[in-house]
Amino acid sequence: MFGKILSAVAAVAVLALAGSPAQAGQTLDRVMSTKVLNVATNANWPPQGFLNDANELDGFDIDMAKEIAKRLGVEVKFDTPEWQVMTGGRWQGRWDVAVGSITPTKPRSQVLDFPAVYYFSPYVFVVHKDSKAAKRSDLNGKVIGVETSTTSEDYINRRLQIDAPDVPPFTYDVEPGEIRTYPGSIEPFDDLRLGDGVRIDAIVAPEQTALGAIKNGYPVKVLEGDYAFFEPLVVVADKGDAEWNAKLKEVIGAMRADGTISKFSEKWYGRDYSQMD
Prior knowledge:
The chain is of the alpha/beta class. It has helices spanning 2-19, 26-34, 60-72, 83-86, 151-156, 187-192, 207-215, 242-257, 260-269; strands at residues 36-40, 44-45, 49-51, 57-58, 75-79, 97-102, 112-128, 143-147, 178-182, 202-206, 220-222, 229-238. Strands 1, 5, 6, 7, 8, 9, 10, 11 and 12 form a nine-stranded mixed beta sheet that branches. The chain has a three-stranded antiparallel beta sheet with strand order 2-3-4, covered by helices on one side. The termini are far apart.
């Protein structure tokens, strides 16, 4: 009878563990024992993450991930999964952290943890350089392009819910006639460069992406006025490892305090986005 009771208790314990999030400390133990930090990121989102002329991953997020690994005393290994997979949680140990300029939204908070905000991205409306639009209301009824499964798409569809403290409220003040989605961040700019209203009339995008497109010769401009909203960007961990979250928060805090994040931001964006201004 005693043996049956022990077996029953063990079975309950196994079921509890199977249905529970990652055990505290599991990720940190794995990283420190393997001496490798497995990072999920983007490979087609300059200047956050992209393949450079040497066919190597480069960019703001790449520098961030390398520095996190350096401060942990381990090597870094990158993987570039589909965005929906990276932000879908339940990683099963495939990655230790995602550093891909991810927004902490309420739906994502159900399956992911957000240990630390590392910078803030102001979002803007972008139009062709020949556009007659002078203010946001001029975009009402127009065709707006956005990258799919992103903050931009949620915003233009009026369903954005950011799950982070101290983020100022924003308003929805554009009513598009049509929303056109794209698989990547550059494709809407490729359509907009064809001409004002040829395929789309405007884009909602991070200011960094817009300025990068302008720098690379795209015939577009940022619609003047206040930012649409400020988006906090976080390092992301799979759900349920409190010790790992605390370690990542500690590392990011130190990088902010000593100016490292500001340095990376100035390097890649020409501006300091480490604070919300």
